[in-house]
Amino acid sequence: MQWRECAPSPLRWFQLREQMLFFLHTPLLFLTLLGVVVAVLARSFRLTRVRTAVLAFFVPLVASLIYSPFATTFLSAWLQQQMPPPAPLRPGSPVVVLVGRGHTIAEATTRAAATQFHQHGALAVYVSGDERATAFRLLQLGLPTGRVSGDSCARTTWENASLTSDWLRLHHPGAPVLLMTDPWQLPRASRAFLRLGLQVTPFSVEPNLSPRERNRLALRETAATLLYKVQGRL
């Protein structure tokens, strides 16, 4: 099994992004901070205390709807609309690519990858930006050691695509990619892989998640997709 390890080199913007997502995924902190910001802005416009109090209460109340099941459904549907149009498939077996998304999602994607490998054939399975344990799980599911590779270096979806592209260029040049991840990340990841010149077939794998976790992923991917659009990566 080929595996690339990288020494941690935290990026300031990456740390800032994670801190902002932490606030977004913690309703009490986010809504409290929003209420404080609204109150400060209202006072700066010299609104009365009553109007300031009303705004500081109702704006967070309305914003709290982003944590509702309706918001999860709406954002999930919007993300699916970002899926790139299907492209003509090149002949040949694909390389299955998994990206790091945490233990629960890795359990689902490794099962799907093993099924694809055993039943439909694949050149190899590449795991990007995850722990070595995910690759070992593929071995436990019956994949040959020489057909599993990966890295623990990628920290973003763009780095997943970049490092995978580099590895494919060396080991399986021109091979199509069967990209497996959760349905929330899949549209953005597919577009990132396409932007780097890879032929991608998206493969959605939806693990068994709680409503709160589904909402967290929907919010996270919506924010990430908007950021990638601003950066010109989609």
Spell out the blueprint of helices and strands.
Layout: E1 2-4, H1 12-24, H2 27-44, H3 49-63, H4 69-80, E2 95-99, H5 103-120, E3 124-128, H6 132-140, E4 148-151, H7 157-171, E5 177-181, H8 186-195, E6 200-204, H9 211-231
Parallel strand pairs: 1-4, 2-3, 2-5, 3-4, 5-6
Helix pairs in contact: 2-3, 4-9, 5-6, 7-8
**CATH homologous superfamily annotation of the largest domain:** HUPs
Provide the residue-averaged pLDDT: 92
User: Main β-sheet, in a few words?
Assistant: 6 strands, parallel
How much helix is in the residues? 55-70%
**Beta-strand residue fraction:** 5-15%
Radius of gyration over C-alpha positions, nearest whole angstrom: 21 Å
> Number of DSSP helices?
9
Number of distinct beta strands: 6
Describe the structure.
The structure is a single chain. 56% of the residues lie in helices and 12% in strands. By secondary structure, the chain is α/β, with parallel strands linked by helices. The chain folds into two domains: 12-67, no CATH class; 92-231, Rossmann fold (3-Layer(aba) Sandwich), CATH 3.40.50.620. The protein has a six-stranded parallel beta sheet, with helices on both faces. β2 (95-99), α5 and β3 (124-128) form a beta-alpha-beta unit. α2 packs antiparallel against α3.
State the main characteristics:
single chain, 234 residues, alpha/beta, Rossmann fold, 2 domains, six-stranded parallel sheet
Brief sketch in words of this structure:
By secondary structure, the protein is α/β, with parallel strands linked by helices.
